[in-house]
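SAMPLE LOG
Freezer: B-3
Tube label: C17
Construct: single chain, 116 aa
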Amino acid sequence: EDWSRVKYCTKLGKPKWSKNWITLGLGILCLIQLIGLIILIVLLVSGQGPGAGSSSISASKITSGHVQPGELIFKDEFDTLDLNHWRHERYLTEDGFVLYGTSENNSYVEDGVLFI
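STRUCTURE (predicted):
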């Protein structure tokens, strides 16, 4: 038997372009990751990256004495968005590709209800 012909047929069975498409696909994935990394670096440098919007824990100051368990110590009727009590946090999530912003379309008060 002529085994060289079998080897030749086996080589013809593999499409020549399959390796190129895999390489192109991996290249595109690397490019997407690089773009994401560049966006993250820009946001970190501009102070808007992960943790930039992190709020610190603050304790409520009670001036009227001892507070009973379950007693209400803060109340907001949401007639307006009182920025002395509330603030927008703008940050990029750790998952990436999601940016929480401060647009008034994202949070507003209507009929005594705060929409977030």
